[in-house]
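Q: Convert this sequence to structure tokens.
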Amino acid sequence: MNDAAIDYAGVFQCLPGMVALLTPDLVYADVNEEFLRGAGRRRDQVVGRYLFDVFPDNPKDDAASGMRNLAASLQRVLDTGERDAMALQRYDVEDPERPGEWQERYWSPVNAPVLDDDGKVVLLVHRVEEVTELIKARGGPTGSRARVLEAELYTRARELQELNERLRQSHAREREVALALQEAMLPASRQVGDHRAAVRYRPAIGALNVCGDWYDIVDLVGGNRIGVSVGDVVGHGLPAAGVMGQLRSALSAASRVAAGPAEALNVLGRYAHVVDGAESATAVTTFIDFDEHTITYSSAGHLPPVLVHTDGRVEFLDQATDPPLDAHPDPMPRPQASTNYSAGATLALYTDGLVERRREDIGTGLDRLAEALARHRALPAESLADAVLLELLPPGGATDDTALVIVRL
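A:
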């Protein structure tokens, strides 16, 4: 069956449980029939109306918090674009046939986003599981066993909700630390003489906005030269970022005094042996001489830089490749190679998150990168970087970290 043959409106109405669609302004866009039955409302009393006009908190109960908790959950979904499961909530719902009379209800809601192609929340899916009868079962609403069960469930739900809130706050603090760490460790885009360098940094889905991938751009001593590097530390999150920061700083310092990129990687390899977590780390560094129009490079287990010449010809800089940084107990001198370019060419360095895909040969990803760089080579560096990420990364984000540096030569 193809998509055109599916009646999605009919499917929505048949979904099990109470399901509603809300706009970002919390106005009901649609509800299924089970929602109307469970809520005791007609469609015209719900669709097109503001959520909390239809279901306000009970003004007779100063402790009522169900709707406030729901509002906070929906706002979290709008802010993060992520699903939010709420703890069991007690709601007092006004009887539509008897204004001023409130019915005690217990609902277990889950709220989820509907995203557009740009990742913006355009609708909220609000699903409710009715558990009122469970709470009031076994002896009736006034029976001692039912009241004990009600109190126990309600108390545990509130405890769970408070614990979830503390976890969210802890995660928010950790994310702030992660963002500060990233900003401190990685240089921003910069003007390199008369040439523009664009950098992009994308952590894997679910990461804390920091990762083990890194990049660096340094001014070199003597002449109109810069060093451009990228590297990859195994792992994600703060531990990998800490190792990344140490290796990036070491290579940055070594590049400023080394005779060439191979010597710089030799120094970094020796340093990697004493850094916990640097196992299997990779790096590639290029020394660009703008006066001589040459690129000298060396790689420690990393994917090759890509040089796109002005005529569209693509050259992979793969003639000086060696094992990862910690591969040898006593590091051997690493290989080094050079190539020439004409003014206006483009150099791209990247990490494997940009080109690797599960169940796909790495050569396919490299070909895809080369084709995108060649086709968009006339764009400014910043626009070229955006175009490459748009074409190569999955719409929902990559499952591996990604760093990309593009230099217009």
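Residues 63 and 148 are 20 Å apart (CA to CA).
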